[in-house]
Amino acid sequence: MKYIDEYRSEELAKKLVAEIAKIVTQNWVIMEVCGGQTHSIVKFGLDTMLPDAIELVHGPGCPVCVTPLEMIDQAHAIAARPGVIFTSFADMLRVPGSQTDLFRLKAQGADVRVIYSPLDALKMAKANPDKQVVFFGIGFETTAPANAMAVWRAHQDGLANFSMLVSHVLVPPAMTAILQAPHNRVRGFLAAGHVCAIMGWEEYEPIAAHYRVPIVVTGFEPLDILEGICMTVRQLEAGTAEVENQYARVVKREGNLPAKQLIRTVFDVCDRQWRGIGVIPQSGYTLKNTFEAHDAAKVFEVKTIQTQEPADCISGEILQGIKTPHDCSAFGKACSPEHPLGATMVSEEGACAAFYRYGRHLQQEELTL
């Protein structure tokens, strides 16, 4: 990727770490909201470079991880039906439901297909008029515009055989829920740059002001993250609580206005269940009534499915930054990428997956010897 090296300079990283060490005078807990940031932190060992006074905790910014078990089971129920082509991004195939996952259903004969855009599902619906084509629409605000466009196009084209199982979640309500929790230790946030590229950062300003927490919109490369941490620590030490934008090369305060308008056209805000966390008010998107003919949950009548999380899985506490993968007795043992108990072990943005991929389960074994 062109220009990638300039954001991975070891020399500049050391200077940023030295600057953080110079200005920090007390202990601070900072949460990176996005799972993509978590993977960069663990992959490059950024958390091990920081002064002991800075503790990074991993937030709920993995849309695959927070998709509720009920929704996963609804997806499996739909995918298993004859006459259905069930489409999804690849990271959903190994996410465990109560009984199975999409990968196993595919092996058993279900027509499950990996696609790279929801518009690919529209093409499938047009090419297969005798089939019901369903797209599993998960994600934060980042993927909402493309998903909204797919539904809008299906409605405009009169595609009665296309529907979407919508499980969109929103970042600001999750941050508010974390700050309101009685066990909260978070004193500053690194906000997800790709979400803010769509939505801007205006909706973060009331959160920063009300809860007196600095929020820094941050990119995903090592220097982005270290600079974001430095900006956050500066505010914490100065006693300020504002929204700052480290990711200025991508993000504007107002966000992407056409994308936001498209989202408002297709989706309403609703209460949403988060896996391992519970219901967070006004934290998700649902299709407007105008587009209910493309709402897979209604088309296939699967909303009544009830589920229960595995007792050994603490992914909910990990997603809230209360615990780390090392606090889980099943991590790297009963729970692994080959046999996951929860989505945080198989998602590309899951904290457990990051710890496992970059060898921290081996570090855990060394600590217990």
UniProtKB/TrEMBL annotation:
GO MF annotation terms: 4 iron, 4 sulfur cluster binding; carbon monoxide binding; iron ion binding
Classification via InterPro entries: Hyd_form_HypD (IPR002780), HypD_1 (IPR042243), HypD_2_sf (IPR042244)
Protein name: Hydrogenase formation protein HypD
The entry's keywords: Iron, Metal-binding
Gene3D superfamilies: 6.10.20.100, HypD, alpha/beta domain 2
Homology family: Belongs to the HypD family.
Record carries keyword Iron: yes
Record keyword Kinase present: no
GO biological-process terms attached to the record: protein maturation
PANTHER family linked: HYDROGENASE MATURATION FACTOR HYPD, HYDROGENASE PROTEIN ASSEMBLY PROTEIN HYPD
Organism: Candidatus Entotheonella gemina
